[in-house]
Amino acid sequence: MNRRKFITSAAMAVSAPLILSQIKLFGADAPSNKLNLALIGTWGRGEAHFDALKTQNVVALCDINEDHLAFGAKQFPRAKQYFDWRKLLDDHQKLGLDGVVICTADHHHAFVSNWALNRGLHVYCEKPLANTIEEARIVRANYLSKKDKLATQVGMQRHAFQNFNRLRELIRDKAIGELTAAYAWGNRQIRRPGYYPAAGAPPSNLHYDLWLGPAPYHPYNPGYFRGGSGANCLEWNMFWDFGNGQVGDMGSHTMDLLWNVVDAEHATSAEASGEAFNPEVSPVTMESHYDNPANDWRGPIKISWYQGGAMPKSPKSWLDLKKIDHGAMFKGSKGFVVADFNNRLIIPVGDNADMTYYKSPSKDELIPTVNGFQQEWFAACKTGQKTSCNFDYSGTMIEQMLLGLVAYRVGKKIEYDGANGVVTNSSEANTYLSRNYRAGYTLNG
């Protein structure tokens, strides 16, 4: 599809449903046109949704910390309160729920998402969508079976930055020739030796067993909860049973810069290397590399992810990529594009890279701006328009990232059958595609 056709179809997809929603009941914000939503996780990332959620009807709140639940209730005093998200979802009909916003610990994300989809609910889930390849595939497949009825969005909110679309346009319009490789990186470095030892009983306001949820039992330690609002995930997401460290954290944001450009499906192989494997903590320093097949506008490409200080080679000695904390780079037959979330740099390379072959788009040809990430999901719930980071797009992306962690754990290049979700050259690798869960928790509940 050429740019003009893409822009025209995108604009129609956005504008037509919005016009209908504005006509309905004399306004999109009419009381009867608001969504009945539940917020699951009322502190940290949950707090970041308060203002947007106030434009809708919040009918239920859930948090495993009673103090955090009370914090959310001050904003939404009429909402029914729950400690256990399973009970809340069992009450979805009684509550008249239309959708859920999920801001739990990472190891609950796929569970709450899949349970909500099974109950016919729209879902907004904070990143990452899943902690295992099996989780990502199950949730994605469930969404695809319901995509004409249900709206989904993963909380990779930086996707709304205009730079994401400008990068896509540059590469698709061949500003650097034919795309051959793409790289993304993040240099956050938070180290932990292993799971914390037992340290007393949980405080009375914390339902610790519900926080553990599907994860294997680990004794309570306040270290898992010592972070401030919006940053407490950095106290637990590097432990294998609770998260996947950088892959699920800033990796979900930074790889999105790359993923939005390359239109990739499943990788056919993955290999990874880094610091010595720790069975309790995900790696800080690691790099993973993938072979992704050709599509309708580019040939096969290499995609790479670097974290914790590992970096791709700079295209020029005078450009220090390490000064970009979280960034992406695209290699083409006529040059490179280097970017962070808000900026981009084109580096033509060679005598043939005179840029005369590139015509920048006019303003009316630009990909439309995402006008509010939560608002895009609200509109999709009401009208059926497409969201930027639905469970298809985001599910495929996190599946590839997690495949790199599997290759890292087995220490060899693995061949992947993306159609069936199976590693074809390592039985050991297949054991890391899924996890066992505690009694009372099933992914397909």
> What is the alpha-carbon Rg in Å?
22 Å
What's the CATH class of the domain at 3-158, please? Answer: Alpha Beta
Uncertain stretches: 1-27
Annotation, overall tally of beta strands: 15
Please tell me the overall pLDDT: 93
Question: Biggest β-sheet: count, sense, barrel?
Answer: 9 strands, mixed
Fraction of residues in H or I helices: 25-40%
User: Strand order of the main beta sheet, please?
Assistant: 13-12-11-7-10-9-8-14-15
Report the end-to-end length measured between terminal Cα atoms. 40 Å
How many DSSP helices? 13
Order of helices and strands: HEHEHEHHEHEHEHEHHEEEEEEHHEEH
Our estimate of the beta-strand percent is 15-25%
What class would the helix/strand composition place it in? Answer: alpha/beta
- CATH-derived topology of the domain at 3-158: Rossmann fold
Write the layout of secondary structure elements.
Layout: H1 3-23, E1 36-40, H2 50-53, E2 57-62, H3 66-75, E3 80-82, H4 85-90, H5 92-95, E4 99-102, H6 109-118, E5 122-125, H7 133-144, E6 152-154, H8 162-172, E7 179-186, H9 208-212, H10 250-262, E8 269-274, E9 286-292, E10 301-307, E11 326-332, E12 335-339, E13 344-348, H11 373-383, H12 391-410, E14 414-417, E15 422-423, H13 427-430
Parallel strand pairs: 1-2, 1-4, 2-3, 4-5, 5-6, 7-10
Antiparallel strand pairs: 7-11, 8-9, 8-14, 9-10, 11-12, 12-13, 14-15
Question: What's this entry about, in short?
Answer:
By secondary structure, this protein is an alpha/beta fold.
Structural account:
- The chain is globular, with a radius of gyration of 22 Å.
- Helix 6 (109-118) packs parallel to helix 7, helix 7 runs antiparallel to helix 12 (391-410) and helix 10 (250-262) packs across helix 12.
- Residues 1-27 have low confidence and may be disordered.
- The chain has a domain at 3-158: NAD(P)-binding Rossmann-like Domain (Rossmann fold, 3-Layer(aba) Sandwich), CATH 3.40.50.
- It contains 13 helices and 15 strands.
- By secondary structure, it is of the alpha/beta class.
- 29% of the residues lie in helices and 17% in strands.
